[in-house]
Structures are given as C-alpha cells and as structure tokens.
Amino acid sequence: QVQLLESGGGSVQAGGSLRLSCTASGRTFSRYAMGWFRQASGKEREFVAVISWDFKWSYYSDSVKGRFTISRDNAKNTLYLQMSSLKPEDTAVYYCAADDSLVPSPYSDSAQYDYWGQGTQVTVSS
Q: What is the structure's pLDDT at 30?
C-alpha cells in the first residue's frame, strides 16, 4: 500500500505560479511511477504529467507542456508539480497517483494507476 497526500493548492491570478507537492508513505516510493491528473468541475479526470521512478522519462499533456514541470525527490518520498503561466482553464482538483511500473502504459490512462491521493484544489482567476 502507498498513501499519497497532496498539498500546495490554492488561488492564484492568471499568469501566476504554484507548486504542488505529493508526499508518499508506505511502500518504497522510489519504485513507483508517479503522475498528476486533474479534474475540473463537471468534467472527466484528465492526465497532466507522469515521471518514471528512475527519473529518465517524463511526459506531459499538450495543454500543460512548456508551462508545468514534474519532478520527484525519492529521498524525501515527494512528488512535485511546478505550474507556471497559469490559466483559468487550469482550474481543477489536482490528484497525484502512483503505479508500480517504470512508466504506466498508456501513461495517460488513470486506470493504470493503483494509488491516489485525495486531491488539492487549484483555482486560477482571470
């Protein structure tokens, strides 16, 4: 079992930045691929980014590529999502997720991930 806890959400104006964190406990964090998903009100959960457990692979959705950066610190059992140039359409609840593979396949499919956090709200105002 892996327990995940997100933090760092909040309200920010368009063009601003936020950094989300996801702290893991339980089984060995360093052996899990870690991803971020988001779900806006009334919409389906969508893939944001994923990073392999060995740091070698990371992928982003087209909507956040160039603005968001996923990273991890295995020594601290923590996953990060640095979000810059935020837009109102980035408003959503953000979830971190874990899968015990190098990179889930397909990585954008939420069903591939075994463990989820409870989510943190990000609100971007125009």
A: 84
